[in-house]
Amino acid sequence: MLSEVDGQEPMNGSSRGVGNGTRSNDKAMAEALSRARKMPSEGAVNGSAQNGKSATHGRTYLGHDREEVTRILIQALSDMGYHSAAESVSRDSGYELENPTVAAFRTAVLEGSWSQAEGLLEGAAQGQSRQQSGNGLVLAPGADRNVMRIWLRQQKFLELLERRDTTRALQVLRSDLMPLCSEQHQKLHFLSGLLMCQSAEDMKAKANWDGAHGQSRQYLLSELSRCISPSVMLPEHRLAALLEHVKEDQIMHCLYHTDPAPPSLYSDHVCDRHHFPCEVFAELNKHGDELWQVLFSHDGTRLASCGLDKHVIIWDVASLEILVRIEAHQAGEITDITWSPDDRMIVSCSRDHSAKVWNTETGALVRKLDRFDEPVTSCVWTADSQFVITGTLDKEKSICQWDLEGNRIHTWTKKYRAASLDLSPDGQWLVAMDDLQSFHVYNFRTRELEYEWDLKSAPTSVSISQDSRFLLVNKSDGEAQLIDIVTRDVIQKYRGHAGGEYMIRSGFGGANESFVISGSEDGNVFIWHKWTGIPVQKLEAHQPRCNAVSWNPVDPCMFATCGDDAKIKM
């Protein structure tokens, strides 16, 4: 509730572990080890130690601040339950995890001693270093003391309501919160409404708050700690966050990453290039004409294909046998297919101006959506498999949302011809590509247009990463771009494949979606490392054109392609 109501940005990191330092590399570590072997320990004493024991050690450890390393180790040992070991390290090193004031603040919040917590906060210094602060509480630069007070008083208010002490809760609201929230009418209105709840359970449900004896105080402490200088109060689980950065960094720089398991901390991570998929092990040729789309199911056990021959074929990936053959559209070619997230249904879109929903086990028609005035180009599902969004060349109904009864729930009003769609897995972003040179990004939850992007070249496909952070746009000029959906920064560009006037699909794939893969007008399939943009593979695929690609979501060593030669290659 705190983060939803207040919207305060983290000040010094979070338990997810956004780094606030630089990463070491192998060369730097080797040099540091070499210096450590050749040089005697430095004799300078770190003045923040409890006693003189640190005088026997240098101020640094292999180039890192010895106090920082030690305090992080003490925190990690405590996190893992090794409290005696943590105390021993603190005693032997002379370093404290937290000074007495910070420890008292932590205890006050966790025990609900709100007056004591506010008193300690009142005496907190602003933006000093650990050495300057002595034994005090230090706020992070830019931290708002009033916001922290609001959080403390809000928790006090909720706990009083939980105990059904409405008289004191009302007094806290009027005397303590209103003076601080005079401009925050929406917050005050929300908190006032909680006074009307008939029971503590009703209040907790409405406030999305789990009570004084749940995790709410720990959550409050986490929020408050982000406003306190990390030099006196470490961000939560700091060692785990740093180790996660190490793993992410090694994965990001592994050119042939095919192992979905997290890297070991014992050694540097590298994947064997011989495990990278670059050999065709099967060709499927049961279609009678050009293939325009091939797509693995979410569980990776089935593959669907469609194209000019107006059929949808569903294949068993293990046996490569046909499971279902659907004569989906008799009057027009099939432009796109999409599996429902539960893999029980598939939508087919056609140039015959229609879209249909099919049962993937039996091939039976589940629903035919209302006919459009122009071809249906693309379709996506919501995460609950209950709604379908279609894109069409019909400007009056370019993007529509449907339920499974065939009812049109919503029509986006901006008029353009939608050539391709994708919806982020978290349900936040709907991206539509038009048939000119732009794509359009909507907040799917509010249905409002967030922004438009002129690519200066016609896009041929759009797709969103599984973490819902990145948009991949393929363009007719032979370039694909990776774009951060929120910041709108172009993160990487991929070149080498041939564009053209036809739909050429690209996508993400491999372990941790480490690669970008695309078809090409010249019949090849191209694979790049997602983060570096380095070409990893160029493979001959189809003649004359490779139209679509799909990477198996559960097997990082398998992908499929299709093309104008009516073949699927695995």
Describe the protein.
This protein is α+β, with helices and mostly antiparallel strands. It has four domains: 30-97, no CATH class; 98-233, no CATH class; 241-273, no CATH class; 283-569, Methylamine Dehydrogenase, Chain H. It contains 13 helices and 32 strands. The protein has a four-stranded antiparallel beta sheet, with no helix packed on it. A four-stranded antiparallel beta sheet has the order 6-7-8-9, with no helix packed on it. Strand 14 (376-381) and strand 15 (387-392) form a beta hairpin. Helix 3 (66-79) runs antiparallel to helix 4, helix 5 packs antiparallel against helix 12 and helix 6 packs antiparallel against helix 8 (145-162). Residues 1-48 have low confidence and may be disordered. Residues 1-62 are annotated as: Disordered. This is WD domain-containing protein. One of its GO terms (cellular component) is GID complex. Keywords: Repeat, WD repeat. Residues 105-231 form the TPR1-like CTLH-containing domain.
